[in-house]
Amino acid sequence: MNHTTVEFAIFSLGPGEIVLIMLVILLLFGAKRLPELARGLGQGIREFKGAVEGAKEEINKATTTPVEAPKADEKNEEPSE
After folding, report:
1. Number of other residues whose CB lies within 10 A of the CB of residue 33
2. How far apart are CA 53 and CA 25, in angstroms?
3. Tens digits of per-residue pLDDT, 28-76?
4. 29 within 8 A of 38, measured Cβ to Cβ
5. Backbone angles phi, psi at 14, to 5 degrees
6. Kind and range of the H or E element at 26?
7. Which residues contact 29 (CB under 8 A, 6 or more apart)?
8. Could you tell me the residue ranges of all domains in the chain?
9. What is this structure's pTM?
């Protein structure tokens, strides 16, 4: 068994385990707070995705914008007095 197989074996949940986890969450937080928690979780995920997309756009913009080199006659030009 290699490393990736072990990782997937740890995190593979069947329907029974998922139902059990949901019941524990229901008991811990109660039925009234679950929609509030889900809404907050969804909002946090949306904000995170937006931040990631913004960072990707900034990186792409910074790496694809061509840098203009100074022209040869403007490089060593000094103001005349």
Report:
1. 13
2. 31
3. 988 889 899 899 999 999 999 999 999 999 999 888 867 677 776 655 5
4. no
5. -90, 175
6. helix 15-29
7. 37
8. 30-62
9. 0.51
